[in-house]
Design goal:
Strand content: 15-25%
Radius of gyration: 17 Å
Number of helices: 10
Largest sheet: 6 strands, parallel
Distance between the termini: 19 Å
Shape: globular
Number of strands: 10
Order of helices and strands: HEEEHHHHEHEEEHEHEHEH
Helix content: 25-40%
Structural class: alpha/beta
Length: 241
């Protein structure tokens, strides 16, 4: 979706207020002014044999959320809601990858190296693509982001403003890194944010639990949390567009 097409996005969408059971208290939203943001559901992070597994991680933890994510995405698409997909990706020459990011730690493979699914975290490579189950369709926004957050060095804020978006619903990986960073960026820009707990995951379950608690602490200091089991039925009860 181009920036030109987002300016009239909400036209014809339902503006009926919907309220989902959430923590620390209920979250109210309208499809017309809300975007579903799916963070970094990339093959290299989620599929066996990808970059995530070469780091010694159990990728089945991340792949376990795919069915719930699919259900939310299908319900959201049925209402015509705005969808944003992100990929953590760098230019082939790595001009947008700070040296400190590439050289940090002691992994077997680094950003830009050739891994099992092509060059790691490089735009256009097979492993950098969003998994087939959640692949973007025509009319959805797909953004490559060089950092952890979805707003840093991307046109996301402008696209959301042109579409009249005031609230964001988040899914994706990993909870404590790119998802939390993106929610904090959104919070600082004035967006009310909801995280679907069963649609996000970490390679380290304790990190996910801590991140979720931090985000909804002190009266939703960063945002709200809910489950797809409470979220999807609200959408399913609306007439399909």
């Amino acid at each position: 979706m181009t920036s030109a097409s987002t300016s009239e996005f909400s036209s014809g969408l339902t503006n009926k207020p919907l309220t989902v059971a959430a923590q620390p208290f209920a979250f109210t939203f309208e499809v017309a002014t809300t975007a579903l943001v799916i963070i970094d559901m990339q093959r290299d992070f989620i599929e066996p044999g990808g970059f995530g597994q070469t780091l010694g991680n159990d990728v089945s933890l991340l792949s376990s959320i795919v069915p719930a994510c699919k259900a939310v995405l299908a319900a959201w698409r049925a209402q015509g809601g705005l969808v944003v997909h992100t990929r953590e990706a760098h230019q082939p020459d790595l001009a947008d990858c700070p040296p400190a990011k590439r050289t940090r730690g002691n992994p077997k493979l680094r950003i830009g190296d050739v891994g099992p699914m092509g060059r790691i975290l490089v735009a256009g490579e097979p492993g950098n693509q969003i998994i087939a189950e959640l692949s973007p369709v025509a009319g959805e926004i797909a953004l490559d982001k060089p950092g952890k957050g979805a707003f840093y060095a991307t046109p996301l804020q402008g696209l959301l403003q042109q579409a009249g978006i005031t609230r964001l619903v988040f899914m994706g990986v990993t909870t404590e890194v790119c998802v939390q960073t993106s929610m904090r960026e959104a919070n600082d820009r004035g967006y009310d944010c909801l995280l679907l707990e069963d649609c996000t995951e970490s390679y380290f379950p304790a990190f996910k639990a801590a991140a979720v608690e931090m985000m909804r602490a002190q009266g939703a200091i960063v945002g709200w949390t809910a489950t797809s089991h409470d979220f999807v039925p609200l959408l399913a009860a609306l007439p399909a567009r």
